[in-house]
Amino acid sequence: MSAQEWLAIGPLLAVFALAMLAVVLDIARPGRDRLVTGVMVVGLLGAIALTGYTAWYFGGGEVEVFGGAYVRDALTSFLDLLFLSIALLTILFSPDYLHPRRLPMAEYASTLMFAISGAMLLGAARDLLVLFLALELLVLPGYMLAGYAKRDGLSTEGAIKYFLLGSFSSAIFLFGLALVWGFAGSTRIPEVAAVLTSLDGAVSLTPALTMGLALLTAGVAFKIAAVPFHYWTPDAYQGSPTPVTGYLSVGPKVAAFALILRLFVDALAPLKADWVPFIVVLAALTMTLGNLVALTQDNIKRMLAYSSIAHTGYILVGLAAYAAAPPGSDTERAGLEALLFYSAAYSFMNLGAFAVVTALQKRTGVTSQITTFAGLGRRAPLLGALMFLFLLSLTGIPPLAGFWAKAYVIIAAVQVDSPWLIGLAVLTVLNAAAAAFYYLRIAVVMYMGEPSEQTAPVQVGRLVSAGLVLSAVATILIGLVPGPVIAFAQEAARALL
Amino acid sequence: MSQSLDAYLVLASLLFCIGTFGFLARRNAIAMLMSIELMINAVNLVIVAFGAFTPELADRASVIALIVMAVAAAEATVGLAIVIAIYRNRRTPLVDEYHSMRE
Questions:
Q1: Are the C-beta atoms of B19 and B42 separated by less than 8 Å?
Q2: Residue A172 distance to chain B (closest CA, Å)
Q3: Which residues of A touch B85 (CB under 8 A)?
Q4: pTM of the predicted model, to two decimals?
Q5: What is the ipTM metric for this complex?
Q6: pLDDT at position A212
Q7: Average pLDDT of the residues in A301-313
Q8: Does B60 touch chain A (CB under 8 A)?
Q9: Can you give the residue range of the structural domain that contains A461?
Q10: CATH number of B11's domain
Q11: A50, A157, A38, A49: which is closest to A109 by C-alpha?
């Protein structure tokens, strides 16, 4: 392998090395949680710097490694940076939750790093088999993390539901993959795309290919938690340890969208016109049902779980805009840009919201009921203000990140000259308005509610504060100066088309 | 050995459907895990059948089938570990009994 190829896979190798290092550290110096946390934070910062350097070094070009199974282009770099930031923030929030509950940090960090390496591989795969392997590398550690508090009935209950439905969907996805592979005669994504393009709509959909496409769509819909494939989400999110819930709500979700970009946009693009009605219906159902059920929730983790389902719906609008736009047009690219930008904005604001919940649960015994937020605005003004900021961003209030994310998705949908997409854009606006009710309900509880008498003062650790500041700065900066992120997303979308 | 690829694909689809039915109908976590294994094995049959009937896929099919088996084994390991963990908490493998979180 040439030096260039080593550099291209550098970030991925760095995360693998970190995962191993966490285990080795735990063997050499057992129980030194702070040491492990420190090493992980430094290592992840290094990996982020390395990814940044790699992205700058290769510019807009692309490098193929392992005979074309792995590709480093602008999309890979965009997703790598996003996944590494998610990992960094999750690591910053976790010790304050794990330590009081006597959960070991080293195994947690190692499992998380393996999951992140799977996500990074998923964003770079150009081979159907590598895509499947990366998907499994992403989800298997995810099941373990969900059940990490193994003596806690809720955690294991969430884990088993996540596991059973997750592996069920993996099997469905794999069956679709095998059919597409047998039809196209190659696992390489460019070759699959070439075979499908050569059909040129003449033999548009054979039964086997239709079935393959349907199974792939169902499998992926499970992974992104789109309605009606979302049943595992609320229980998995509510049961998991809170920092894990934060990770699960962004990491696997964005990674599943990376899978969609590599599989459906890269390989199956010639079939995209047949796919539009499904995505439109899926997006409409997902955001509407997610928001409606979120309105009735009293548990904050469960509420944010349904809210994350609604956000999946918004991201799917970007995908629908891509699929409905004529091939090779600017609108086609706008849809993908909106999808990528939304993923980035959503990751930071949603992780931030979960970080506040984690910070409150530093003391064991604090539940996830919304009432625990009562009077937070007075008990801990700064924490309350940060939560308010994340909630405003999730609602989509300008000038925060969430506003631009929704705006881009809606603009991308309106630009496509199709009644389906116009309808979807209108529905998105209505949904965003409905979502304000339950987001701002928390704000009302925070600022108007009376704290119960035995509430102890909230203490926020240094690491959590750093993570909170990072998420808040990202949420504000992406909102005030969206330019650089948009430029990066544009470059990433261009790499794909 | 049948000379028709379709016959094998139909057989594999049937196996896959039996697995899907088992997953949806059985309420025992272990039985559900076994149903998932059945689905994955059906996929392996598809892969091997494609390899046997399509010359250009012949050399790759067995490699892919082996990798899929390895992944299935890893998945079963994680799954059984989670089942054991929840069995210790709840003393039952029946998923219907796992309902401590609100619907």
A1: yes
A2: 8
A3: 147, 150, 156, 159
A4: 0.95
A5: 0.96
A6: 87
A7: 95
A8: yes
A9: 271-497
A10: 1.10.287.3510
A11: A38
